[in-house]
Design a protein that fits this description.
The structure holds 2 protein chains of 2 kinds. Chain A has 13 helices and 10 strands. Chain A is α+β, with helices and mostly antiparallel strands. Chain A folds into 2 domains: 187 residues, no CATH class; 183 residues, no CATH class. In chain A, β2 and β3 form a beta hairpin. Chain B is of the alpha/beta class. Chain B has a single domain, classed as P-loop containing nucleotide triphosphate hydrolases (Rossmann fold), CATH 3.40.50.300. In chain B, 31% of the residues lie in helices and 25% in strands. In chain B, β1 and β2 form a beta hairpin. Classes of the chains: A alpha+beta, B alpha/beta. At the A-B interface, α1, α9 and α13 of A face α2 and α3 of B.
Chain lengths: 384, 238
């Protein structure tokens, strides 16, 4: 098409100027693409490091607040409440947990560790064992991976907890951060040992392992209906919801960083606008000529928009290629792990940035093109 | 009471079959310091096949008249018919189509498109009209060879040619869509005498083949090529 050809030739005629304007778009596209890719990788890496898959419902007692007339006198889950939970969540399994912390001694070393009291037959539901076995006697315990590593604990080691001594029957796999329990820096003991040692009958929390993820909402609702019928006795979370909240937060961070990149694209848009205005001003006479010999307004407009479009296409194209490199560098510096770069969610930001770049160029070219199309042909012809 | 009878427009002197009919056409420009009447109730008719020279001193309204006939502008009041169409009722796009299809322009400054080659300059109005590329179009080539350019000049840019050659290209461009009217604004103003004569001979030839030619000029020798001269003074036909 002749208008495209004229647009192309005008760019070639003003190569340096056009190149600089397109360079602005390149920088803008690289900025938003690599920021977007960084944000996306960050979200993916955080999601991966959270060990819990969204299959747990966590039930904790409502903590009394000052000035509020609470029915529960102590913030623990009673045996009666546990019975109710077990009944309504069946056939899913409810795991009652004692949670606390105590001073521990390993040989000469003294430390503080978290303690979880769990029924031995339910321990495999909550954690994976790297070596050894679930404690068979009441005085057996499992050591978390970090704790074991730090104090060189092995199967058979003895650890003094408070005034009692437990024997390590196994070491756990590393779990990462969890929403229900964090066993990496903890000892897991039998519920009977815990309840006897600390003289506690009621539970700190109950975790329901939901077999079919689609049942999570139903399980949550059932627990709430039963226990909170009259008063709010318990708070019920599900790990899926918590996970979604965290992912949402990181997505917002990602949007924010991308928006900062977007500022450079605004600057690029201004430079495209400037170049296109120059192009119109320099070619007033030419516009007068083509209008007088029968070129319609929208055809003049098209000619100038093609020019902006070509600049945008070149800028976005180069920007797209460079943002792959830019994203790689940003991710390897910030995360030291580029494996998330090749995820479709991350790579999506390349066409996304290119699309925005092209859009910015065309929008920036609109006014100059409109101005060119609406010049008075008589005055334009007379222009020297 | 006696009934008032309005006088017929232009005393009824404008024939219906004229290719250009200006009927009491007035053009007023509103400027910050007041209105300027550039053309004042002008009555002009041009018959098909005429060769008209428009003369007059600077500022007399010649250019305004040419802009009106070229449908680059419309009269403030009065009527202007070009090829039977009332220009005051036409939209900007329709006026543009009228220029593209029925009028060929030849300017003093040649006014070729600098980014296009000689051949592309001549093809341009044809592409506008047919809305498609006409690669290797033989009509544009034939016209260019007919006005005296050589085959190797066709790929050149306009500025690489002499003034006379550029004006020949402009004539070829003006003729490509087979217009009814050829409008020339000082066509020899930027050329030496010998070249100017060649161009005028060419325009006479075009006129002999049936095209209506309307030409604005200062030069009495050039005006002598025309079959009729219209002189404009102070916005009126003298």
């Amino acid at each position: 098409m002749i208008f495209f050809e004229i647009a192309k030739r005008n760019i070639r005629l003003n190569l340096l100027r056009s190149f600089l304007a397109a360079a602005g778009i390149v920088i803008g596209v690289v900025a938003i693409s690599s920021m977007g890719m960084l944000g996306s990788s960050l979200t993916l890496s955080v999601t991966d490091s959270l060990s819990t898959v969204g299959d747990s419902v966590i039930i904790v007692p409502v903590v009394g607040q000052p000035g509020q007339n609470m029915v529960t006198t102590e913030s623990l889950i009673t045996g009666r409440q546990l019975q109710q939970i077990v009944r309504v969540v069946a056939p899913n399994e409810a795991v009652p947990i004692y949670a606390g912390a105590d001073r521990i001694e390993i040989g000469p070393d003294k430390a503080v560790a978290a303690l979880y009291g769990i029924r031995p037959d339910q321990i495999p539901l909550m954690v994976d064992i790297a070596e050894g076995i679930v404690p068979r006697s009441t005085s057996g315990a499992l050591a978390g991976a970090t704790l074991a590593d730090e104090y060189d604990l092995k199967t058979g080691s003895r650890v003094k907890v408070g005034n009692e001594t437990v024997r390590i029957t196994g070491i756990l796999e590393e779990q990462g951060m969890g929403f229900d329990i964090n066993p990496d820096n903890a000892l897991i003991v039998s519920e009977r040992w815990y309840s006897t040692t600390y003289d506690q009958d009621n539970y700190d929390q109950v975790i329901v392992k939901v077999r079919d993820i689609n049942d999570i909402d139903a399980v949550k609702l059932a627990v709430e209906r039963t226990l909170n019928r009259r008063d709010d006795e318990v708070t019920v979370y599900d790990t899926r919801m918590i996970l979604e909240m965290i992912v949402e937060t990181f997505n917002q961070i990602s949007v924010f960083t991308t928006a900062i990149g977007g500022i450079s694209l605004v600057v690029a848009g201004v430079s495209i606008f400037n170049v296109q205005m120059m192009s119109v001003t320099e070619r007033i006479k030419e516009i007068g000529i083509i209008r007088s010999i029968g070129t319609k307004r929208f055809e003049v407009m098209r000619m100038f928009l093609y020019e902006a479009f070509i600049l945008g296409l070149i800028g976005s194209g180069i920007g797209g290629i460079l943002s792959f490199a830019g994203g790689y560098i940003a991710i390897s510096i910030m995360l030291q792990d580029t494996s998330y770069l090749f995820n479709p969610e991350t790579l999506f930001y390349i066409p996304y940035g290119m699309g925005i770049g092209l859009l910015v160029t065309i929008v920036s070219g609109l006014y100059p093109a409109w101005k060119a199309a609406n010049l008075n042909p008589i005055e334009a012809l007379r222009f020297e | 009471m006696e009934e008032e009878v309005s006088a017929p427009v232009c005393n009824g002197e404008i024939p219906e079959d004229a290719v250009i009919r200006l009927e009491e056409a007035t053009k007023v420009y509103s400027l910050p310091f007041g209105d300027v009447v550039a053309l004042d109730s002008v009555c002009i008719s041009v018959m098909p096949g005429e060769f008209i020279a428009i003369m007059g001193p600077s500022g007399s309204g010649k250019s305004t008249l040419l802009n009106l006939i070229g449908s680059l502008d419309v009269p403030t009041s009065g009527d202007l018919y070009i090829d039977g169409r009332d220009t005051r009722t036409l939209s900007d796009d329709e006026l543009t189509e009228l220029r593209r299809d029925r009028i060929g322009f030849i300017f003093q400054q040649f006014n070729l498109i600098p980014l296009l080659t000689v051949l592309e300059n001549v093809e341009y109005p044809m592409i506008l009209k047919s809305r498609q590329a006409v690669k290797g179009n033989s009509r544009a080539r034939d016209l260019l060879l007919k006005v005296g350019l050589t085959e190797q000049m066709l790929a050149h840019k306009p500025k690489e040619l002499s003034g006379g050659q550029q004006q020949r290209v402009a004539i070829a461009r003006a003729l490509i869509n087979d217009p009814a009217i050829l409008l020339c604004d000082e066509p020899t103003g930027n050329l030496d005498q010998a070249t100017g004569r060649l161009i005028m001979d060419m325009l006479s030839e075009v006129n002999r083949r049936g095209k209506t030619v309307i030409m604005v000029t200062h030069d009495a020798d050039v005006a002598a090529y025309a079959s009729r001269t219209i002189t404009i003074v102070d916005g009126k036909v003298a």
